[in-house]
Amino acid sequence: MPIFNSQILDIDRKEAKRYAGLQKSNFDDKIIDEACELARLIINPRGIWEQYDYDEISQTIKASPEFQLKGNSIKKHLTGCKKVILIAVTVGIEIENKITSLFKEGKYGLSLILDAAATAAVEQSADQMEKAIKNQVVKQGYNMKWRFSPGYGDWPIQQQPEIVKAVQAEAIGISLTESMMLEPRKSITALIGLYEEANECIMDISNKGCSSCNKTDCPSRVKT
């Protein structure tokens, strides 16, 4: 159960603007800079992961207890994989409290961008943890596919409890609401498939991006 404490020295302003839906807007850069710096000071990025054997035929993750993945999207994504890594990442509850506080104060623009900056921060934290994980799995003779979260494609969000339990996300303060939403809200869970180098696949982590995702109606999708 390795716990990862990432260090985010700078939040990607371009990504924050994209998550806010302001790619083509002339939104005040000073507010974007202020929000990103404020987010950097408030966030508490933490991650955790667990590695398990995976039976591709039955789509079963050999956790305790074992559970079967559902949906064709995740089945296709894990083609050729013999192991999986489950991850959970959060940037903490404090930044959500600040977002709410700013909104109540009527600072709507800053609140909006701070929310987007927090989203960018949790993604950056997950990216950092992936790099750390990859350094370990290559020593085992495996390579990694890009991370895939419950709710992508037809992988049902209803499997979120099994992921949260198997990765022991509560160790870093992540829990689930009755509607299967993660708390703190700026958190993510995901699955990473591991395949042997000899069976290298075109869906390698290096190809991760919006062009490889079939969720074409996503508001954060990068146009290609």
Task: Give an account of the 3D structure.
This protein is an alpha+beta fold. It has one domain (3-212): NADH Oxidase (3-Layer(aba) Sandwich), CATH 3.40.109. 34% of the residues lie in helices and 18% in strands. The protein is built from six helices and nine strands; from the N terminus they run E-H-H-E-E-E-H-E-H-H-E-H-E-E-E. The strands form two sheets. Strands 1, 2, 3, 4, 5, 6 and 9 form a seven-stranded antiparallel sheet that branches. Strands 7-8 form a two-stranded antiparallel sheet. Strand 3 (60-61) and strand 4 (67-68) form a beta hairpin. It starts with a strand and ends in a 28-residue tail after the last strand. The relative contact order is 0.19. Mean pLDDT is 89; it is low at 200-207.
